[in-house]
């Protein structure tokens, strides 16, 4: 599934209200997503996000980090696949949604994020998790922020006619 950057997308038959507003996405660079999320958090507004929570995640500790497990050392092979390939070949898909509630920044760059999960107080710090910035890069697929936090470029993407993706496309996996 070829999803071009800076395009507007929707997923056929996605939604739960007949005649309701279609779900739509702007496919933007991950750094733009992070800047929008950080702006929202700094303004006191948590950010809903969709991710593949099962990857490089220690549930008891509540840590999501790309260096958590060294699978390459264990298996003696390279597991490098970019995000696009992970989606195309089913290695990764959005499996869970949570809230970004805080961000640790240094010099304008996000370093780590505090997550509020919906699984109760078990795991992490009473249900709060820590996600490193590199984990965000690899396994966060969507964020929902108020449009007042979107740069003009992203607002313009939503003015384009959306490309309709097939109902089985990974972009619709959280809404099923």
UniProtKB/TrEMBL annotation:
Single biological process term from Gene Ontology? response to toxic substance
**Which Gene3D superfamilies does the annotation name?**
Cysteine proteinases (3.90.70.10)
Q: What are the recorded GO MF terms, alphabetically?
A: cysteine-type aminopeptidase activity
Q: Which Pfam families does the record match to this protein?
A: Peptidase_C1_2
Which keywords does the record carry? Hydrolase, Protease, Thiol protease
GO CC, any one term: cytoplasm
| Protein name, entry field | Peptidase C1A papain C-terminal domain-containing protein
Q: Which organism is it from?
A: marine metagenome
Lineage, highest ranks first: unclassified sequences, metagenomes, ecological metagenomes
